[in-house]
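Data availability (excerpt). The following record was deposited with the supplementary files.
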Amino acid sequence: MNQAFNEHQLRIWRTMIKLTNNYLEGRINFGYLVNSLEGALDASEITDNKLTRQWYDFWTPLEAINAEIEIKISNKEKLRVVREMLNFLMSKIK
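Predicted structure:
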């Protein structure tokens, strides 16, 4: 486990992992995932700037897809960026 997280932050981080898994399993829609991840990061109160920048490196493509209304983004592309986010999240608590 990453020692940079306190218990509250670890709980929120695990919630982010659950959210990404819920999307991959078809339990929530893409927009809900993207908005919930951002809210979870805010709620986590993480002050590690490097970790926050890394998180945004993975979240920004999700937000860009979510904001794109004029072109159709394939489900394959959505799944790819969500899996990348999930892999990042998982790597930080191992």
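Summary of structural features: The radius of gyration is 13 Å.
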